């Protein structure tokens, strides 16, 4: 059975955004995709195993040193053999793999040094930085012709103000200058924005902080970050999820900051309860939309979790949701049951190539047959009106063509990613199940097509196939980029 530490639980809520090409000046040569690390024109899949044992680092509950696996895309999709495994013991990666670092608990990507190759940012929220116990860190690993290698640490600008720096990460052009910026959160109120101009020998050109009205300490703070241009002004905007607090109340919520040439400007907090968010254009109007999740559910509106959508526009995002969907919504497979965790993981991407971003929504505690906490993933189609509950699809390990079998505590859907890994114009569905095989974990990749997600040519493998130790409880598939 999976064990979730409080820091890792919070950091798992990192935004699941299908990466988009970043706008840049005509003189630059950026990466075409923000997740193509070797520049071959195919998107790559990044999967975290933040509890993995590395180099003999001792087991301590769910908190291990951590590892990240990058499976490179190709015309045939991904395979276990075409990969890079990254840890803090990897040559050129800053730091040392130590007990409790949780390297890989947060992930983000983009071409930070504008050299034509996407770079990977990895959070290690449990890293001890000098005498700062659990201070946390973020590490940039550079992309290149041969894939990811080398890197530099992102300095924490306020180590005494918080712990767990690197709990949440997002990359986007937040000031519209054509350079990718990096936002990093912690368990504090402060989110630090490192502005574009990174090089392999120096950090960001400059940095500043925004102070969010959220509760702090423990597993609080900025639980997740996501970026995308919701108002079409050429500057990416930022969402921050945490426990929103004002003089009247405190509740799990998503805050919206609009990007501008002068920095991020606070727009407001979205009205529904939410513990994570992701951004993409689900109605095809050219403005990115926000999808939030309240996977905890409640006793009034939803027992097993729900998602809500907010549509982008020239004026930004409306704070009232355009729609809210749970497993009792007509057309959605399953039933709204206590502790299903519908919305635990969300990713947006265009599966059928119609120009609308579709949504993959997991319920990783869903009961399948007699198997408890085994998990499922539901696909909702994008449309001019938002997410449609017509022509939905649902997948579990009991679905014909999906390798494996639904078993207790698999947590199929602990992470999801919609990204075109074989370059055919259709987003493929990748799924993590971090409880598979007594918390070894595993991942699946299913092909996208005009008809939707298909199971022929499905790929599945666990940590041992990609060189990650199965000592202890690695939880391979706990986190996924995209």
Structure explained in plain terms:
- With 482 residues, this protein is mostly beta strands.
- Helix content is 2%, strand content 37%.
- It is built from two helices and 30 strands.
- It has helices spanning 6-12, 436-439; strands spanning 45-49, 67-71, 83-86, 103-110, 119-124, 137-142, 149-154, 168-172, 181-185, 190-194, 207-211, 224-228, 237-245, 250-258, 265-269, 276-280, 289-294, 306-310, 312-313, 316-317, 323-326, 342-349, 358-363, 376-383, 386-395, 412-419, 428-433, 442-449, 452-461, 479-480.
- The protein has a four-stranded antiparallel β-sheet, with no helix packed on it. A four-stranded antiparallel β-sheet has the order 4-5-6-7. Strands 8-9-10-11 form a four-stranded antiparallel β-sheet, with no helix packed on it.
- A hairpin with a 4-residue loop joins strand 13 (237-245) and strand 14.
- The two termini are 26 Å apart.
- Mean pLDDT is 91; it is low at 1-28 and 58-63.
């Amino acid at each position: 059975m999976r064990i979730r530490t409080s820091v890792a639980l919070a950091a798992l809520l990192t935004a699941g955004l299908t990466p988009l090409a970043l706008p840049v000046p005509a003189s630059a040569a950026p990466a075409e995709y923000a997740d193509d690390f070797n520049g071959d024109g195919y998107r790559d899949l990044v999967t975290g195993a933040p509890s993995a044992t590395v180099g003999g680092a001792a087991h301590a509950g769910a908190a291990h040193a951590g590892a990240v696996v990058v499976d490179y895309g190709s015309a045939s999709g991904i395979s276990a053999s075409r990969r890079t495994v990254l840890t803090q013991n990897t040559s050129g990666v800053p730091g040392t793999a130590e007990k409790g670092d949780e390297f890989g608990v947060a992930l983000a990507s983009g071409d930070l040094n504008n050299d034509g190759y996407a770079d990977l940012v990895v959070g290690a929220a449990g890293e001890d930085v000098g005498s700062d116990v659990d201070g946390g860190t973020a590490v940039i690993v550079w992309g290149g012709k041969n894939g990811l290698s080398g890197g530099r640490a992102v300095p924490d600008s306020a180590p005494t103000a918080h712990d767990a720096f690197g709990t949440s990460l997002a990359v986007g052009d937040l000031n519209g200058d054509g350079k990718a910026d990096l936002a990093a959160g912690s368990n504090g109120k402060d989110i630090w924005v490192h502005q574009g101009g990174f090089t392999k020998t120096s950090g960001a050109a400059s940095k500043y902080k925004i102070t969010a009205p959220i509760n702090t300490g423990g597993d609080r703070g900025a639980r997740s970050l996501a970026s995308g241009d919701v108002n079409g002004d050429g500057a990416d905007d930022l969402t921050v999820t945490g426990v929103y607090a004002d003089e009247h109340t405190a509740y799990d919520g998503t805050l919206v900051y609009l990007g501008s040439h002068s920095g991020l400007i606070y727009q407001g907090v979205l009205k529904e309860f939410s513990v994570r968010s992701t951004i993409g254009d689900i109605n095809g109007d050219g403005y990115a939309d926000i999808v939030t999740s309240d996977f905890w559910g409640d006793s009034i509106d939803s027992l097993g979790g729900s998602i809500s959508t907010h549509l982008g526009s020239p004026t930004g995002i409306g704070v009232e949701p355009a729609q809210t969907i749970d497993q009792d919504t007509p057309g959605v497979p399953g039933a709204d049951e206590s502790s299903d965790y519908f919305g635990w993981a969300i990713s947006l991407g265009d599966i059928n190539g119609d120009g609308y971003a579709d949504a993959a929504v997991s319920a990783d505690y869903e009961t399948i047959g007699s198997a408890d906490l085994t998990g499922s993933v539901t696909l909702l189609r994008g449309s001019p009106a938002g997410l449609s509950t017509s022509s939905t699809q649902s997948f579990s390990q009991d679905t014909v063509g999906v390798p494996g079998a639904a078993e207790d505590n698999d947590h199929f859907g602990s992470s999801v990613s919609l990204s075109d890994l074989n370059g055919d114009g259709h987003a493929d569905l990748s799924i993590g199940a971090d409880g598979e095989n007594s918390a070894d974990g595993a991942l699946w990749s299913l092909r996208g097509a005009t008809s939707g997600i298909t199971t022929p040519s499905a790929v599945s493998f666990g940590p041992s196939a990609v060189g990650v130790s199965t000592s202890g409880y690695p939880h391979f598939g706990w986190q996924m980029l995209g």
